[in-house]
Design a protein that fits this description.
GO terms for molecular function: ATP binding; ATP hydrolysis activity; ATP-dependent protein folding chaperone; unfolded protein binding. Keywords: ATP-binding, Chaperone, Cytoplasm, Nucleotide-binding, Stress response. Its main location: cytoplasm. This is Chaperone protein HtpG. With 628 residues, the protein is of the alpha+beta class. The chain folds into three domains: 220 residues, Histidine kinase-like ATPase, C-terminal domain (Heat Shock Protein 90, 2-Layer Sandwich), CATH 3.30.565.10; 135 residues, Ribosomal Protein S5, domain 2 (2-Layer Sandwich); 123 residues, Four Helix Bundle (Hemerythrin (Met), subunit A) (Up-down Bundle). The N and C termini lie far apart (97 Å).
């Protein structure tokens, strides 16, 4: 046992803007105030689970009270509601760290979201931004937290009215639970119903009936408690005994979200290793979907004992999945670090990942609309697996959906794409960028449209990476429409496409030679294009060079010291090119025209002219000559 030195009460200020944040939470956003109770019960259950885990290595922490429990005590006469657990508890320092810091994901981001959604009953925001405890101020004028950490001889009290400050003070051991935490809510006048049995029992059964810790309700202080939730592990029950609403309630509890699951996967694996899996795909995007740390959200249990919520049960590209895995084969006495290196966990990882991808494929085959909702939310993350997970790449390609030059407002699968391959087409063509509208009007697509060749339009940043690692589908490699040659002449034009106008090849060749010389140092080559049908020029990357969009992305991140020189392609059938090819004026004018063509191609590619002043001067000279 350790003893803390008593200290006088201390008053602390919340971080900046917290009083405004809490005011917005209470008065502007949330109409369903019931969510506060789910949050406090979830916190209590987590504390019990943490103690159960630490008690494996240190049984003395459990003392003579080894069974976890949560109690809810009503005091309608005093307008109080108390939530108490016999979990791990907190020291005064723990209170300052966990209860004195609001919205660890960033107060500003949270407040921006609140302001944007003001007036909406969007209770998802609590779970998304980690401020669940503070939802208590929606119903309480004052919140007191009495706690005693397991294995210590000191207790402390955290107290706040949610208006900007809080105090932490040591208290006598008789004022705190023997172990764990007691949260006392002094209810607002319009929230006194939360001290009534009917209201509290209804909320618990509807929202927290499946937490893995028994919940007892006392109708008044010192009364005998009635069990309102038995703490049975939902994931160990047969699917036939669980309703969709049961799953939804458990999802909200385990995931900290307030939407409904878009898809639920529940099964028990038997064989060499036995484990139960209950996972959910959210209906909406979690706020931290693109967090650089990219941690997963799968809780790991061993024989119903919570071990950790940071075990890498799923690969990072499935980090949006919520839920748990309960193993009967992992040893309870292993450290979390040793568990992560366990061959048993490796087998579980492989099995759960494969099953989840298989279930997604089944959903895609049986209910395309439901699957597309998942893809629209999480497709950009799933595509990370195309880059990271070679073993499952083919399965992920089967799940992938794309916008394309043929999809309209819908989505296309690679199965759809391959079924519509044109005669002599040997590759799957794609274009990357950051704007779908601009991508769909890129001049580099013109030759492909003229031949009825579908081009995948890839606007996500991750698309710049997975397309570069040698991905193919059914023997067809992926090929960028802005890189290298195209061999489009082998594919016939569509029936409704007019043959290109034939140009004076000698004149065009002469202009190309002049342009190569004039643009030396700015481009690596100037050549006739197979891509263009209506535009005069476009830029492409060399065959052995990097795709232009990836090159731009790396350059903007400072990871590309020197970009490769692009190739300027010219449409010899374009009326402008035909006129330029026969210009016989001074070389100065022809040089201006060549540079203006290059800048025109840059602008069509979403770039700026490389030298804005020189561009303006050339344009000025050309306009003056036109009006002379």
């Amino acid at each position: 046992m350790t003893t803390e030195t008593a200290a006088p009460p201390e008053t602390h200020a919340f971080e900046a803007d917290v009083s405004k944040l809490l005011h917005m939470m209470v008065h502007s956003v949330y109409s369903d105030r019931d969510v506060f109770l789910r949050e406090l019960i979830s916190n209590a259950a987590d504390a019990c689970e943490k103690l159960r885990y630490e008690g494996i290595a240190t049984p003395a922490l459990l003392g003579d009270d080894p069974h976890p429990r949560i109690s809810l005590t009503l005091d309608p006469d005093q307008g109080r509601l108390t939530i108490e657990d016999n979990g791990i508890g907190m020291t005064a320092a723990d209170m300052g760290e966990t209860l004195g810091t609001i919205a660890r994901s960033g107060t500003k981001a949270f407040m921006d979201r609140l302001a944007a959604d003001a007036g909406k009953a969007d209770s998802q925001l609590i779970g998304q931004f980690g401020v669940g405890f503070y939802s208590a101020f929606m119903v309480a004028r004052e919140v007191e937290v009495f706690s005693r950490r397991a294995g210590t001889d000191a207790a402390a009290c955290w107290r706040s009215d949610g208006l900007g400050t809080y105090t932490i003070a040591p208290v006598d051991l008789t004022e705190a639970p023997p172990r764990g935490t007691r949260v006392v809510l002094h209810l607002l006048d319009d929230a006194k119903s939360y001290a009534e049995r009917f209201t509290v029992e209804r909320i618990v059964k509807a929202q927290s009936g499946h937490v893995p810790v028994p919940i007892t309700l006392l109708e008044k202080p010192d009364a005998e408690g009635n069990l309102v939730a038995d703490g049975a592990a939902l994931w160990l029950k047969p699917r036939s005994e669980i309703s969709e609403e049961d799953y939804a309630d458990f999802y909200r509890s385990v995931a900290g979200q307030y939407d409904k699951p878009a898809h639920t996967i529940h099964y028990r694996a038997e064989g060499r290793y036995e484990y139960s899996v209950l996972t959910f795909i959210p209906q909406s995007k979690p706020f931290d979907l693109f967090d650089p740390d990219r941690k997963g959200h799968i809780k790991l249990y061993v024989r119903r004992v919570f071990i950790t919520d940071e075990a890498p049960v799923l690969p990072r590209y499935l980090r949006f999945v919520r839920g748990l895995v309960d193993s009967t084969d992992l040893p309870l006495n292993m450290s979390r670090e040793m568990i992560q290196d366990s061959p048993v966990l490796a087998a579980i990882q492989k099995g759960v990942t494969g099953r989840l991808l298989g279930e997604l494929q089944k959903l895609a085959d049986s209910d395309g609309d439901a699957y597309l909702q998942i893809w629209e939310n999480f497709g950009a993350v799933l595509k990370e697996g195309l880059y990271e997970d070679f073993e499952r790449r083919e399965a992920l390609l089967g799940l992938a959906r794309f916008k394309s030059t043929r999809s309209g407002d819908g989505w296309r699968s690679l199965k759809d794409y391959v079924a519509d391959l044109r005669e002599n087409q040997t590759a799957i063509y794609y274009a990357t960028g950051n704007d779908l509208d601009r991508l769909s009007t890129s001049p580099q697509l013109e030759g492909f449209r003229a031949r009825g060749i579908e081009v995948l339009l890839l606007p996500d940043q991750v698309d710049n990476f997975w397309t570069t690692v040698g991905v193919d589908h059914e023997g067809k490699p992926f090929k960028s429409v802005t890189q290298g040659g195209t061999d489009l002449t082998l594919i016939p034009l569509s029936d409704d496409t007019e043959a290109p106008v034939q140009a004076d090849s000698d004149a065009v060749d002469g202009f190309l030679a002049f342009a190569r010389n004039a643009l030396a140092g700015a481009v690596s080559d100037v050549r006739v294009s197979e891509r263009l049908t209506s535009s005069a020029v476009c830029l492409v990357a060399p065959e052995s060079g990097m795709d232009r969009q990836l090159e731009k992305l790396l350059a903007s991140a400072g990871q590309l010291p020197q970009a490769a020189l692009p190739i300027l392609e010219i449409n010899p059938g374009h009326a402008l090119i035909q006129k330029l090819a026969v210009v016989e004026d001074a070389d100065e004018l022809k040089a201006d025209l060549a540079h203006l063509l290059l800048d025109q191609a840059r602008i069509a590619d979403g770039e700026q002219p490389s030298d804005a002043r020189a561009f303006a001067e050339r344009l000025d000279r050309l306009m003056r000559r036109a009006v002379d």
